[in-house]
């Protein structure tokens, strides 16, 4: 028994001693590992350590945000292709974009702060929206409703050429020398509108039926009676009537043929155009030349065929009622030349004298209404 116990105790003692020998080194190794780990936790490696001074100076960067929105019109329909500009307060340059197929626009990674969104689209008035973007915010801009652009249309009403000429002719019919004698065939408007055929005939008719025209013709017939011009007409009431009739017929033939019929056919203006400016020599030349020159309906100067041919025609007609001794082709052409000279003299008076004594003369410096083309 003693031997058995001895052998059993000896074995347990031997096992306990062997375990102590094995556990001690393992515990020592475990202690060293834990100690080393604790040192790493409390004292980081200098390779990954940030100096405290530098860490204090590094600022915290704010998170960027985004700005999104949609562009529509008044009916709610989306507008594609609108130009969208994002502007930052105190920052540059602005960002630009275009609305997509659903009218949407988007700006990513936008720095926080105050901003302004401008939307422009063809045919619409521009719109502007301002706001403030906070860090990390996804800002939704309210729908930008664009209204149609206001179109300012200037309507210029211009009278037709005939209407302008009508107003000018009515003004001419009020022109009278010493407020009595008609002065209808003078235009004080340098760029007066050309007359229509109807207006040319009306001006001739208005001249011939004017009481002053009839009175002056009667006075001239009396002078011829007193001087016994055209003795073939005789004397007395009958002779006076013939002289008056011949004078009035000559005047009417010359006025209608040279002032209405031929000007309508040849498209010429029968009026004298007052110059009123320039040197005296240029005005004299203008007055004399106007006895054989005139303005065409195209506003260009040309030979006055209407007046010359009208004088010949009226002279030929007067051969029908003149006394036999006062007829003939020579007298006709002589009267034409005399008539041209008389017109030159009258034009000189018109240019330098008659305007001062003519009433209802328009102001040549007053802007005239420009006629539109018919």
Quick overview of this protein structure:
This protein is α+β, with helices and mostly antiparallel strands and 374 residues long. It is built from nine helices and 15 strands.
Describe the model.
There is one protein chain. The protein has 374 residues and is of the alpha+beta class. It folds into two domains: 65-146, Immunoglobulin-like (Sandwich); 161-359, no CATH class. Helix content is 46%, strand content 17%. It contains nine helices and 15 strands. The chain has helices at 2-42, 52-57, 161-172, 197-208, 211-227, 236-266, 280-289, 305-318, 329-357, and strands at 65-73, 83-88, 95-98, 104-110, 113-120, 127-133, 138-140, 144-146, 176-177, 181-182, 186-187, 272-273, 293-295, 301-303, 358-359. Strands 1, 4, 7 and 8 form a four-stranded mixed beta sheet that branches. Strands 3-2-5-6 form a four-stranded antiparallel beta sheet, with no helix packed on it. A three-stranded antiparallel beta sheet has the order 10-9-15. A hairpin with a 6-residue loop joins β2 and β3 (95-98). α4 packs antiparallel against α6. It is rod-shaped. The model is unreliable at 1-11, 13-18, 30-48, 53-58 and 365-370 (pLDDT under 50).
What's the SSE blueprint?
Blueprint: H1 2-42, H2 52-57, E1 65-73, E2 83-88, E3 95-98, E4 104-110, E5 113-120, E6 127-133, E7 138-140, E8 144-146, H3 161-172, E9 176-177, E10 181-182, E11 186-187, H4 197-208, H5 211-227, H6 236-266, E12 272-273, H7 280-289, E13 293-295, E14 301-303, H8 305-318, H9 329-357, E15 358-359
């Amino acid at each position: 028994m003693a031997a058995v116990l001895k052998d059993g105790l000896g074995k347990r003692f031997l096992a306990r001693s062997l375990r102590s020998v094995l556990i001690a080194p393992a515990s020592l190794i475990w202690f060293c590992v834990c100690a080393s780990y604790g040192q790493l936790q409390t004292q980081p490696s200098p390779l990954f350590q940030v100096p405290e001074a530098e860490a204090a100076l590094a600022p915290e960067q704010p998170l960027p945000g985004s700005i999104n929105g949609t562009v529509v019109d008044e009916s709610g329909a989306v507008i594609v292709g609108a130009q969208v500009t994002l502007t930052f307060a105190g920052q540059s340059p602005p960002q630009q974009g275009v609305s997509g197929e659903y009218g949407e626009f988007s700006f990513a990674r936008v720095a926080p702060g105050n901003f302004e969104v401008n939307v422009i689209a063809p045919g619409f008035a521009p719109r502007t929206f301002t706001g403030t973007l906070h860090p990390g915010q996804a800002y939704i801009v309210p729908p930008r409703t664009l209204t149609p652009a206001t179109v300012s249309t200037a309507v210029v009403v211009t009278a037709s050429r005939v209407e302008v000429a009508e107003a000018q002719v009515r003004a001419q019919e009020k022109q009278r020398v010493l407020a009595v004698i008609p002065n209808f065939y003078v235009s004080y408007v340098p760029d007066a509108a050309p007359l229509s055929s109807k207006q040319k005939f009306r001006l001739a008719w208005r001249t011939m039926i004017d009481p002053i025209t009839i009175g002056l013709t009667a006075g001239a017939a009396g002078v011829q009676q007193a001087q016994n011009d055209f003795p073939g007409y005789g004397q007395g009431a009958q002779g006076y009537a013939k002289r008056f009739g011949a004078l009035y017929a000559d005047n009417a033939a010359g006025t209608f043929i040279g002032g209405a019929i031929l000007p309508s056919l040849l498209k010429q203006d029968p009026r004298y155009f007052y110059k009123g400016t320039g040197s005296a020599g240029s005005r004299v030349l203008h007055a004399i030349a106007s006895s054989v020159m005139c303005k065409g309906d195209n506003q260009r100067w040309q030979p006055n065929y209407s007046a010359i041919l009208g004088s010949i025609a009226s002279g030929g007609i007067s051969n029908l009622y003149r006394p036999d001794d006062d007829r003939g082709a020579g007298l006709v052409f002589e009267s034409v030349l005399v008539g041209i000279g008389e017109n030159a003299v009258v034009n000189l008076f018109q240019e330098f004298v008659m305007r001062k004594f003519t009433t209802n003369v328009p102001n040549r410096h007053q802007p005239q209404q420009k006629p539109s083309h018919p």
